[in-house]
Amino acid sequence: MANQRMTQTQLVRSLAEGNEVNNKTARGFLETLASMAIAEVKKNGVFVLPGIGRLVRVDRKARMGRNPATGEAIKIPAKKVVKFRVAKAAKDAIVPPKKK
Q1: Residue 2 pLDDT
Q2: What global pTM score does this model have?
Q3: Contacts by residues 54-60 (CB-CB < 8 Å, ≥ 24 positions apart)
């Protein structure tokens, strides 16, 4: 059970306790942050969460691929995808860099 992830309810409670507000306010903050992030990525292609990372929209080019079952060449169309790029400070705090 040590590998259980934090649920949304636990996150809301933790935010509420840490900022001394009620759960309803904390949940509203979380929902506003999520909708703001989505709107900002749609509009500008990037949303930055300082100290954590950035949500980025990336354009993928059309390319040729292979059907693994038949080996037949197929065309993969261009598309837009969303990626999350972790900030260096957060990455180093979670997985410390190796000393040389």
Answers
A1: 58
A2: 0.74
A3: 54/84, 54/85, 54/87, 55/82, 55/83, 55/84, 56/82, 56/83, 56/84, 56/85, 57/81, 57/82, 58/82, 58/83
